[in-house]
Amino acid sequence: xxxxxxxxxxxxxxxxxxxxxxxxxxxxxxxxxxxxxxxxxxxxxxxxxxxxxxxxxxxxxxxxxxxxxxxxxxxxxxxxxxxxxxxxxxxxxxxxxxxxxxxxxxxxxxxxxxxxxxxxxxxxxxxxxxxxxxxxxxxxxxxxxxxxxxxxxxxxxxxxxxxxxxxxxxxxxxxxxxxxxxxxxxxxxxxxxxxxxxxxxxxxxxxxxxxxxxxxxxxxxxxxxxxxxxxxxxxxxx
Length: 238
Description:
This protein is α/β, with parallel strands linked by helices. It has one domain: Rossmann fold, CATH 3.40.50. Helix content is 30%, strand content 21%. It contains 8 helices and 13 strands. The chain has helices spanning 25-33, 47-56, 86-101, 111-119, 128-131, 158-163, 214-217, 222-234, and strands spanning 7-10, 13-15, 20-22, 37-40, 59-62, 106-109, 124-125, 149-153, 167-170, 177-178, 186-191, 196-200, 207-210. The strands form 3 sheets. The protein has a 9-stranded mixed sheet with strand order 4-1-5-6-13-12-11-8-9, sandwiched between helices. Strands 2-3 form a two-stranded antiparallel sheet. The radius of gyration is 17 Å and the shape is globular. The two termini are 19 Å apart.
């Protein structure tokens, strides 16, 4: 029997109206295409259950979803902020902190990069159209497997090393973004209006957050595939 594939624990998406959690197939197919086994975790703040999940998983995917609760970064909620799922905030932060502590790889997408930033002391724009208006299209309409704006990738960063380019096209569907960067996080890419589009945690094996959505682009975009390959390879270093 051959060596098993790495297992990636995927944070579940929460549907408040239906009282259910679910998963977008793009996340799973992206990871399957990278040669790993994706596993959707239960939605729970039970630390015993989450620790058992961490024993099973070699890495973690922080998926998109609800806005992170402003109370997590010490702000009052503005009218334009969406309804958070505080149980998921607690779950994601618990998993992220423990992954960092034991140097387990994590990839954060959209809400994922925002959660990473908040977890370690950063803040967010709760609503870009009202708090950081610009001409850059950050909330595109379908289809999502296309480029709507570009980002500048900083030379000398992990992301630059992965994709080998200083400027790439991305898709974009979000109304929140990093405002004050958390201590210990490093910015790796910016949109033309100055928003942080990618971060990492230096000194760790692979703690990377992206504001765009490679799960929609990976089938046709080489930069997205390179990022997924780097995430997967980081789990094979053990």
